[in-house]
Amino acid sequence: MAAIETIRDWNGCLSALRDLLGERLEVSGAARDHHGHDESHHPAALPDAVVFPETTEEVAAIARICSAHRVPMIPFGAGTGLEGGVTAVAGGVSIDMGRMNKVLAIHREDMDAIVQAGTSRLTLNTFLRDTGLFFPVDPGVDASLGGMAATRASGTNAVSFGTMRENVLGLTVVLADGRILRTGGRSRKSASGYDLTRLFVGSEGTLGIITEVTLRLHPIPDADLVAVATFSTLGDAVKAVTDTMQAGIAIGRVELLDDDLMAVVRRHSDIDFEIAPTLIFEFHGEAEEASRTAEWVASIVAENNGRNFRRATTPEERSRLWAIRHDALPWARQDRPGSRFWPTDVCVPISKLPECILGTKEDLAQSSAPGYIVGHVGDGNFHCTFTVDPDSAEELADVARLNDRLVRRAIACGGTCTGEHGIGVGKRDYLELEHGAEAVAVMETLKAALDPHGLLNPGKIFPGYPSGGTFPDAGL
Fold first, then answer.
1. Which of 53, 235, 273, 458 could form a disulfide linkage to 90, CB 3.0–4.6 angstroms apart?
2. What's the pLDDT tens digit per position in 341-366?
3. For residue 298, what are the contacts with CB-CB under 8 A and spacing of at least 6?
């Protein structure tokens, strides 16, 4: 693995960037602070400067300048990540893609779109409102589509529509030395050459800076039917999900909230659900088809000691249920003023989901910090989120221990240390455990080939990766 080379001339780099961008280069403390952290518990690490490009060509020029002066580059989307992926652990320049927010093309007949990397998923879906199409990947926040591609994001719709891996057709990427690379295309399949698109999807800005994304679109489902069921035990709820998936029932999505999180929901809303493990199902298709599917799932729920299987058919009822799902964790943080989220996620084969979730629930009973289980369990992905006192060394150590147990349990089940959050700085130590030393060595070889000076988002993904040299304060 190539080490980050010592900076040669920071003032020269700063001067060249200012000549290129003018006021779109910022070195203020506020700008640097905003770009030094994401939504995770990981410590902030501030860049020395922030730049705001508007075109791929400007990103390429920025890369050429930074490469010439051996200055690290950290792509920044919406800052909604959960594993410290945008922290500037070696200083350098944060490249904010927020001004690259144009929808460049919509091809309705081919069901695809081309967007700049800073475009948010809600912006795209608003743009698509009158086309009968939508972009389905929903990580629960209004993330940038470039950032979602870089982290291989997923979300509540993955069980039926897939993750970013399945929904990115092509990319425009700026390499560390400023070369512009275009991968993939608009066709739905290709057997031509190496699949470079998949190489960059999930690379977390360590191989190149994504500037444009070509996305697969989908028809808006004819009808949505949402249903809720509660269960006596968490094991029953999870078994109902695995039975549903193993029966080959085509559901739109299914979300799990454990009993502790449902207690939070009851405290913060007027909904009359039981304080018990709860599943929220969504069924797609024509109304009659969705209703038949719901009846089938209702029978599986009953076989697993589920009760109160209730349908919500109006748009208002459906919106309310999904709002509760998205608001539950923020409500949990409100219950502990001054706390910080420590979120973690894993994904396991569907048959191992009961074992992994129930083992995690047992661990939570021993935690000194409140913890909650919530997940997109239809594809084996679930989250464990703690609300921790950031000033309590005991709580931080305890949650770190439980996170380690969760990850190791998931990998032992044939799963992954992260289903959708990415590696960032938080999961680096598990890369070799999951993939093996030879696979990690190949990844490092690819990194060294594309970024020989170690300038692209240093300190992320790889265990033991050097955090770089010391860069002077840019607040000139």
1. 458
2. 999 999 999 999 999 999 999 999 99
3. 227, 229, 309
SS3 percent helix, strand, coil of the chain, rounded to 5, is 40, 20, 40
pTM, full prediction = 0.93
Residue 136, helix vs strand vs coil: coil
For tokens 């994504």, the residue is 210
Tokens of 273: 């659900």
Closest CA to 378 of 59, 158, 225, 103: 158
Give the Cα separation of 188 and 191 in Å (integer).
11
pLDDT of amino acid 287: 85
pLDDT in tens, 246-265: 999 989 999 999 999 999 99
d(CA 193, CA 163): 23
Structural domains in the chain, CATH included, are 10-98+429-450 (3.30.43.10), 103-219 (3.30.465.10), 224-426 (3.40.462.10)
| pLDDT of the residue at 464 | 61
Coil, strand or helix at 282: strand
Model confidence at 202, pLDDT cuts 50, 70, 90, reads: very high
pLDDT of 327-337, one tens digit each?
999 999 999 99
Strand partners, 210: 173
b/e string for 316-351 if b means 16 or more Cβ within 10 A? eebeebbebbeebbeebbeeeeebbbbbbbbbbebe
Q: Are 113 and 105 in contact (CB under 8 A)?
A: yes
What is the per-residue pLDDT for 285?
A: 85
E strand intervals along 221-314: 224-231, 253-257, 278-284, 306-312
Q: Map residue 426 onto helix, strand or coil.
A: coil
CA distance 274 to 280: 13
List all residues 6 or more positions away from 395 whose beta carbon is below 8 Å from its beta carbon.
Answer: 368, 369, 388, 389
pLDDT at 469: 34
